[in-house]
Design brief:
heterotrimer; A alpha/beta; B alpha+beta; C alpha/beta; A: FAD/NAD(P)-binding domain; eight-stranded mixed beta sheet; five-stranded parallel beta sheet; about 35% helix; C: alpha/beta; FAD/NAD(P)-binding domain; Polyamine Oxidase, Chain A, domain 2; seven-stranded mixed beta sheet; four-stranded antiparallel beta sheet; 17 helices; globular
Chain lengths: ~525, ~400, ~550
């Protein structure tokens, strides 16, 4: 093997590992260099208190591509699920709750019209989400430029939408760009139901329910399920187990996966990349560098703006990647009792977003750089289904907290304490006494996520999933086909199409792009 | 109050167009009182007689007030790296004390503007341009340790152009100025301040550009006209200069090309190759704006060709359509004048590829009127391979007194 | 009772334009108007003796010059005079002006941020590119992308070709521009918050969205795509107030033999055998025609003037889901003299245009939060003009008329009706804000016409008082306006058409919807088209 044919992958997040596995399977010499001591990037399981472990960022698996899981044999590499198809339990201020299982409300009170509407709504959303899902494994086409493949790609996208049928196509075009608030108001009456459905549209995004793009964000979240992947799942051993299985698959395919080796920079030889230089000074020569890091880290930090053209740099700098969600981990003395909720439901996905206005108000504060006075939460108690995460009899609570803006006004110890306190207050309201059960806690603000997982802005998806950063616009126009405008450099992370969520498609698509361009050369 | 002071206060609107530091003299000499606005300042179209002002450029020397030219001072440890990413040519080759003509492009390899880089002292650069560039330069500065200051109003500038220009400078005390090579910069003491002289200009002749603090502007003017009297010094306006620059084959932004960042339609901007400025593109540099697009263009071919045309007859072909032998429109004239020095009817034109090769049969459609009666002629055009005006004295060093 | 060839419901500027073209094509046309006056929201009324108010819409830019010329509106009494300025005043007493001289304008920006002053050229070029792209679409019927009819395919190809003219990059930029927030869009160009909020006002006027809401960048374009005599983005005053626009179109209509009946609110569109047959008014009169055209907004059209049995249920559903939120109010003020704005200094021409009081994007966004929370903005965004400084016909000599457009004002207060106390509170919020920047203002106030969305709805008929007949967001633009499948001005019943701002190309005093609808009607009647094409202005 020559240096030129070697491929280095910067970052062993799930997409980097998927990319490595596919490239190795295609016979390439691949080395993954991961800064952290374990693989996974943001898809990791962290011990946040002695004996207590939780998924560091995302805690539910929604979108892992089934094809990838099958092709890479993730189950044979150790991936198991503690739970699949979690139900959603929406908790109301009053202590009432509503249980949603796929498209059905299986417990709780709902007006008949909502009950009927829910099934239709879900069917339609899944149908639309399938359009989104169909794009996941395709190379985003160039519009009005490029070659025949781009024209075909554009035509395929058009055709997918057209094949919805006339009425559904019209409805898709109407709602894809608008906000979940309006669409839910058109369809439902129950505030609790609307709140529960809306949180999926804004989770992790710089969006309130009334913000346009929130329907698109929801469709993206549903895309895994729409593609037949089932509902939200809990991997046994936490999200890190997915990454470990991917790493095992990559290694089995022949890739080298190194951890604890942060990259200082991507090196250049003239107008093309020549490899990477590690923080420890070691240099790895390579003709191709694929970066799983976010676009800003890759391009502005590791490559450096001066080695790229100005218009492109300007676009990368304005890629919107301000994180909006915090992650809460609680080590609990005992299983919390949630008012009036049967204990067997405590292991489901618990949602605290009692109505649309609650959620919108939570967002309002974040618009001005403050954490929400009354945060909305997506809560799991994974230790109920996965004993490995906590000492016997004790429990782990993992929650996504909305909203915590990546903003200097909402950063630092005081802000963290404040949001922790508010989150506990909200939790305590639904699970009286929970506060006293807390043995240890950890709250990761976006700035912490930025530091811990090396994601600029601490955005879970490396950047907003919105129409202006979607498909052929992701991360920025002119660089949506995984190839960066620097010979030998590729991106393979969530900053590319199809974006965030532990999905793996970006990694596989990037591997395909690398192989395709070798063929073209 | 100066324009710079006015800019700091709300009341600035009470005056839209300002006077340069030379205005007391230029206005006294401007007996035809013809002016137009150039950016912030009023600038003379002509002073007494356009033809005689032009004649002074080619026969003696003429002075043009350059102050309104946009200027940026670029300093800092990364100044060179910054400029090299900005422009298409290799700025490392512009040594301290030298000036380089250059262009800069957007990512698509389309020309944003042209201008000159003055390497004043090691690591200290001044960029002079037609269009204001602070936003573009600042965008470019991301990732570089560089300081950019627009200092248009802090520097008064004069162009002194023509065969006796060196003699005049020597007479005002610029000892040794004759030894400046083309594009070289010299620093001289003038009445206790520094006078910067560069052997540059927009006329394609022996000539210099003079840069001084605004407070010394009038003294400089007076010294030039005092000592220059016996060397035939005259003031010149933009009309005379325009004839000289077309003879020299120099481009003017907004005339011969449209700045890419102000261009609405994709096919209306031009690449360096399409402006016959391929010599200013150095692919040896690993990264500069437009490099990838220009490499692709080189491989694929350009859309347009920029040519000098020698037009039959004596009617200037301003704004004329250019046709091929089958009467198809193949381009347009961007600048045209009668050349008094070459005694030719000259034009600069942008033609669709592949037209514009030497020997191509091309025709200009020229409209002109006599006593309000309009005429049209189809004039045969020859593609000229050499500039229309390129005297040896332009390059000769040491410069003679002529 | 006489039978007409066509009846137009509503004598707004679009209804009148539509009727004018139909009449000019030789049809016998009747316009039925519920108010005792014509004009809809393009109206001037003398509420205070001696003062002519532009009661609703107040300035002019979008009116298609092709129609202005073709209908000879100048001959029929319309004159448009451009703004002479425009300014944002900040609470620290600084200003950011719109000067007409290019260099003065640049220096004004440079005073706030030298880099932004240069960036403005790039910004203007990029926005102008969007204007140049959309302007040719204004006098065209939007294609139906689900259709394979030759005409729709031809129009889709036209659209594609237009896009291609601007290059690949433009396609991406356009996708982004139509979906971004105005704040994000401006952040890509500018650093100064003052400059950003000065420019962002056009992104929220008439819209129930905040400057941070994705989708507001397009709203800005909607306010930029007009022109005054080819100066794209410029705005002007209709001499005599905006009623002059409607009056001139009505004069044109009458010159073609059309009729207008006022004080005739339509109770119901008469449908017989699956096609329209005419209209019945509240007072019992019936007028018959095979063509009925509604200038009303889509919600009102399909929920108020039809027997629901006559409509496909899906249409009623679509009309209910039509986003038409009231978000704007208006104060029309008669003044006994010219208010002084000390921040402007003496004799500053900026007061000849629109005046705003602004500080930051955040403050503007908070104004939107108030609206979301069911109340008028405590620090509203005002678009304030004193047309009488330019137009001597608006007020007695030495006196003045001030038009104050207010963003945001909800149609209901916390879900309930407005009370008189609310109205008073709203009025004072606005007057106080102006008073903070103009010490002598309050003492000059002689009469105030206070219009919340409720008054706009009650008088003009705009649902919820939405000035555009429906939000200008992607889901309600082009082939989605008013509803996907109904964007070619035809309603769900034979002979029924829409011609108001709820159809393409949307709100503003543009007259394009009215003219475009006329083109479709004439086509259906097998008559030659007489509606002019848009001028190319590439």
């Amino acid at each position: 093997m020559t240096d030129r044919s070697r491929i280095v992958i910067v970052g062993g997040g799930h997409n980097g590992l998927v990319c490595a596995a596919y490239l190795a399977r295609a016979g390439r010499e691949v080395t993954v260099v991961e800064a952290a001591s374990q693989v996974g990037g943001a898809a990791v399981t962290r011990e946040f208190a002695p004996g207590f472990r939780a998924s560091g960022c995302a805690h539910l698996l929604y979108q892992l591509d089934r094809g990838i899981a099958r092709e890479l044999g993730l189950e044979s590499h150790g991936l198991k699920f503690a739970r699949r198809d979690l139900k959603t339990v929406a908790l109301a201020q009053s202590g009432d709750h509503l249980v949603l299982d796929a498209g059905r409300a299986v417990a709780g009170t709902l007006p008949d019209s909502d009950r009927a509407g829910l099934a239709a709504w879900r069917a339609r959303m899944l149908k639309f989400a399938r359009i989104v899902a169909k794009q996941h494994n395709r190379l985003p086409p160039r519009l009005g430029g490029g070659g025949r493949a781009d024209l075909m790609g554009t035509a395929k996208l058009g055709l997918d939408i057209r094949l919805l049928g006339r009425e559904d196509m019209r409805e898709f075009l109407r709602i894809a760009g608008i906000n979940i608030y309006d669409v839910l108001e058109e369809n439902f009456e129950s505030p609790l139901l609307k709140g529960a459905l809306a949180i999926d549209a804004v989770l992790g995004a710089n969006l309130g329910p009334r913000s346009n793009n929130s329907v698109l964000s929801l469709l993206h979240r549903l895309s895994g399920e729409a593609a037949g992947g089932g509902g939200p799942a809990l991997p046994a051993g936490g999200m890190g187990a997915v990454s470990e299985a991917l790493a095992a698959a990559a290694r089995a395919a022949g890739a080298t996966v190194r951890t604890g080796v942060p990259v200082r920079r991507i090196t250049l030889d003239g107008d093309r990349v020549s490899g990477v230089e590690l923080e420890n000074g070691e240099k790895i020569a390579a003709g191709t560098v694929v970066s799983n890091a976010d676009p800003a880290t890759t391009l502005l930090k590791l490559v450096g703006a001066r080695n790229l053209e100005t218009g492109f740099v300007h676009r990368v700098r304005h890629f919107r990647h301000k994180g909006m969600a915090a992650k809460l981990h609680l080590a609990l003395e005992a299983l919390p009792t949630i008012a009036r909720l049967p204990s067997e439901l405590a292991g489901e996905r618990l949602v605290i977003a009692p109505d649309l206005v609650y959620l919108e108000h939570a967002f309002d504060a974040a618009k001005y750089g403050r954490t929400s006075p009354e945060p909305a939460l997506e809560v799991t108690i994974p230790s109920l289904s996965d004993k490995s995460l906590a000492p016997a009899g004790k429990h782990v609570l993992s929650a996504v907290v909305l909203y915590a803006p990546y903003d200097e006004r909402a950063n630092g110890e005081a802000a963290r304490r404040e949001l922790l306190d508010r989150s506990l207050a909200v939790l305590d309201r639904h699970a009286p006494g929970l506060r006293r059960q807390v043995i240890a806690s950890e709250l990761l603000l976006p700035a912490d996520i930025e530091r811990e997982f090396r994601i600029t802005g601490g955005h879970w998806h490396h950047g907003e999933l919105a129409l202006d950063q979607f498909i052929m616009l992701r991360p920025v126009p002119g660089a949506a086909q995984y190839r960066m405008p620097l010979s030998g450099l590729y991106l393979c992370g969530a900053g590319c199409h199809p974006g965030g969520g532990v999905m793996g498609s970006a990694g596989r698509n990037a591997a395909n792009a690398v192989i395709a361009s070798e063929r073209a050369a | 109050m100066s324009v710079k002071e006015a800019m700091g206060c709300k009341e600035h609107f009470r005056k839209a167009v300002w006077e340069t530091p030379f205005h007391a003299r230029t206005s006294a000499l401007n007996i035809v009182n013809q002016w137009h606005a150039w950016k912030d300042y009023t600038t003379a179209d002509a002073f007494f007689d356009e033809q005689l002002e032009y004649a002074a450029i080619r026969n003696a020397c003429a002075v043009f007030d350059l102050t309104p030219m946009t200027k940026h001072l670029i300093t800092g440890p990364d100044a060179l790296a910054f400029l090299n990413r900005l422009v298409t040519r290799d700025v490392a080759k512009i040594r301290p004390g030298m000036v380089g003509y250059t262009i800069w492009c957007d990512d698509n390899g389309q020309v944003i503007d042209d201008g000159t880089i003055f390497h004043l002292r090691e690591g200290v650069y001044r960029l002079c341009s037609q269009e204001r560039q602070l936003d573009w330069l600042t965008r470019n500065a991301f990732g570089f340790d560089v300081t950019i200051v627009e200092d248009t109003h802090d520097v008064a500038g004069l162009a002194l152009q023509g065969p006796t220009s060196c003699a005049v400078l020597k007479a005002i005390g610029c000892t040794g100025v004759q030894n400046l090579k083309p594009f070289a910069i010299g620093f001289f003491q003038f009445h206790g301040t520094e006078l910067t002289v560069s052997r540059t200009g927009f006329t394609g002749d022996l000539g210099y550009e003079l840069w001084i603090e605004p407070a010394q502007a009038l003294e400089l003017w007076d010294a030039l006209f005092d000592k220059g009297k016996i060397h035939g010094i005259r003031p010149m306006g933009t009309h005379a200069l325009e004839v000289a620059r077309i003879e020299a084959g120099f481009l003017a932004a907004q005339v011969d090309f449209h700045p890419a960042d102000q261009t609405i339609m994709a096919d209306r901007s031009r690449s360096p190759f399409e402006l016959d400025l391929g010599r200013l593109v150095d692919f040896g540099k690993p990264c500069f704006n437009g490099r990838r697009a220009l490499l692709a263009e080189q491989a694929k071919g350009s859309r347009y060709r920029f040519v000098r045309l020698d037009v039959e007859g004596n009617k200037p072909a301003r704004s004329a359509y250019i046709y091929d032998k089958d009467k198809n429109v193949v381009g347009t004239v961007t600048s045209a004048e009668w050349s008094p020095s070459a005694k030719k009817n000259i034009a600069l034109a942008s033609l669709h590829m592949p037209w514009g090769r030497p020997g191509d049969e091309l025709w200009a459609e020229i409209y002109y009127q006599r006593e309000l009666k309009w005429y049209k002629v189809m004039a045969r055009c020859q593609v000229a391979e050499q500039p229309f005006w390129d005297p040896p004295r332009k390059r000769a060093t040491p410069a003679q007194d002529y | 009772m006489t039978k007409y060839d066509a009846i137009v419901i509503g004598a707004g500027h679009n209804g009148l334009t539509n009727a004018a073209y139909l009449a000019r094509a030789g049809l016998k046309v009747l316009v039925v108007e519920r108010n005792p006056w014509i004009g809809g929201a393009a109206v001037s009324r003398e509420i205070e003796k001696g003062w002519m108010y532009s009661n609703c819409s107040y300035v002019c830019s979008l009116l298609r010059p092709e129609l202005f010329r073709d209908l000879e509106l100048a001959r029929h009494g319309l004159q448009v005079v451009p703004y002479g300025g425009g300014v944002s005043i900040t609470s620290n007493g600084d200003i950011l002006g719109n000067y007409t001289h290019e260099e003065v304008q640049r220096r004004e920006f440079a005073r706030h941020n030298p880099r932004d002053a240069d960036a403005y050229d790039r910004y203007s070029t990029d926005v102008m590119r969007q204007c140049k792209f959309i302007r040719p679409m204004l006098l065209r019927t939007p294609p139906d992308p689900t259709s394979f009819k030759p005409r729709d395919l031809k129009e889709m190809i036209f659209l594609g070709k237009e896009l291609k003219k601007f290059g690949e990059q433009f396609i991406y930029d356009t996708l982004r521009f139509y979906s971004m927030s105005i704040a994000d869009f401006l952040n890509e160009y500018f650093e100064s918050d003052t400059i950003k909020c000065h420019l962002s006002g056009s992104g929220i006027i008439g819209s129930a969205m905040g400057v941070y809401s994705p989708g507001t960048a397009y709203v800005l374009l909607h306010h930029y795509m007009g022109d005054v005599d080819g100066s794209i983005g410029a705005w002007g005053f209709a001499r005599g107030g905006m009623g002059a626009v409607s009056k001139s179109i009505a004069n044109a209509l009458k010159s073609f033999g059309g009729e207008i009946v006022v004080d005739a609110p339509v109770r119901q569109v008469i449908v017989k055998g699956g096609r329209v047959a005419g209209v019945a008014t509240e007072n019992g009169t019936e007028y018959y025609a095979d063509v009925v055209v509604s200038n009303l907004d889509p919600r009102r059209t399909y929920t108020k003037i039809f027997d629901p049995k006559d409509l496909p249920p899906v249409i009623v559903e679509k009309a209910k889901n039509w986003k038409i939120r009231g978000s704007s109010g208006k104060l029309n003020i008669a003044l006994d003299g010219l208010p002084e704005f000390p921040a402007l200094g003496k004799d500053n021409p900026l007061a000849f245009g629109d005046i705003h009081f602004l500080d930051s994007l955040e403050k503007m966004e908070r104004a939107y939060d108030d609206w979301k929370n069911g109340t008028w903005s405590k620090e509203p965004y005002l678009d304030l003009l004193i047309p009488s400084m330019t137009d001597p016909t608006m007020a007695p000599p030495g006196k003045h008329f001030m038009s104050v457009f207010v963003q945001y004002v909800p149609p209901f207060i916390h879900g309930r009706e407005w009370t008189d106390a609310d109205r008073e509170g709203f009025k004072n919020t606005v007057l106080d804000q102006i008073g903070r920047y103009s010490p002598n203002f309050r003492s000059l106030v002689r009469h105030v016409e206070c219009r919340t969305p409720r008054e706009l709805e009650a008088e003009v008929g705009l649902t919820e008082g939405n000035i555009f007949h429906g939000e200008l967001t992607m889901d309600q633009l082009l082939f989605n306006r008013p509803f996907p499948g109904y964007a070619q001005y035809r309603g769900p019943i034979r002979g029924f058409y829409m011609c108001g701002s709820g159809t393409h190309p949307g709100g503003g005093v543009m007259s394009a919807p009215g003219a475009n609808a006329a083109r479709e009607i004439l086509m259906d009647l097998g008559r030659p088209n007489i509606v002019p094409e848009g001028w190319s202005d590439d």
